[in-house]
Amino acid sequence: MLTQYQTAFLSYMKEQLPENSPASLYEPASYIMQLGGKRIRPVLALLAADAVGCSFKNALPAALAVEVFHNFSLVHDDIMDDAPLRRGQVTVHEKWDANTGILSGDVMLIWAYECLNIYPGTLFKELTSLFSATARKVCEGQQYDMDFPNQKLVTQQEYMQMIAYKTAVLLGCSLQMGALVGGASKETSLPFYNFGIELGLAFQLQDDYLDAFGDPETFGKQIGGDIIENKKTLLYLLALELGSPEDAAALERLFETNPTDPTQKIAQVKELFTTSGAVEQIQQQMKAYTENALKEVDQFPVEEEKKEIFKAFALQLMDRKL
Length: 322
Description:
This protein is about 75% helix and about 0% strand. The protein is an all-alpha fold.
């Protein structure tokens, strides 16, 4: 459905990859940009521009800005997490070193802003204002995520704010930037942003669910990874709220352990997630956020036929194998 946008973006991206000197600064940036990924964010920017009646090609620089920023954040996130792999390949700081990763990430952030220089006066100001606000929130979301493991009490509201900032705002930004480039006003482009927020929240909750209950053959990550790392996801927070006092205490004790073989711990935690009603509750929330996203599409200033493309995309994105 969206292949034309993805193909056009990848072609444009390859033309724009930096070949500057020193190579030791720019090669890591090109490396992370070419590691693959779904390219959801740039595709959504192009789709939004196309939907409001503009050639999606006009939105290619904005789409690249979003994708460069996203990958910059991954380079720095991987350093913070000391992650060895990204998309099945060696991370930048492992392939080179941490200092190179930090500096290459820095230059990617600058590159992301430079992508927007092509747009004229008022539009440039609107795009950079939105982009800067989004970038700040992504950083805040990352800090919340880093703070939570050392925080005795994490509320559900705090967790939802964290995933909104760390994941959803960049989806919203991508869509609204595409709509703005396409000629939509700030007001008429707002439903595009809201659609991205609601869909991003649904997607991240689904990711949390699949981390514990997904099919290892189709999910693409280690099942139970969040449990092993004692991450206070919404499943965990809901289980504490909904479960009996005894089960809540047992769950808290399990999240204070780090066994060499976590198999039994994962099984026990999943059982507590299920019996508490947390699994049913998170599935209801995923459905509600998806429905909210679909309602935002109805507010798009575009033809009904084009609205259906966004709705189909949302439903397809949320139809990963459980």
